[in-house]
Amino acid sequence: MSKQHNTGFLALVTDAKSRVKEITIDEFQQHQRPSVLIDVREDREWQAGHLPQAMHLGKGIIERDIEAAVQDKQQTLVLYCGGGFRSALAADVLQKMGYTDVLSLAGGYSAWVNAGLPLEKP
Question: Which CDD domains match (predicted)?
């Protein structure tokens, strides 16, 4: 069962997605450039499972902590959340902070799980 989102939230996401490039799981798996995979979900979501090699910087702290975690603003960043909405919002903010190669994983964690791909647990 998919989560029903409020119209105000969806409007923000639609606006952010007009500026953010999304990448599908297939594109991510074929991606040749070195990238940093960032999980922007809440702590409890991260602890339930996450994508292999991911770094956890929740949406609530990413703006505060990203510059310490990733100093190179040209580094490719691939963000994901549960379904691709929060990651688009976070990607939009990181672009405003000067990060030049920020991608949002379309479908997020849910799409990854539905594809039967491997997960890690802390």
Answer: RHOD
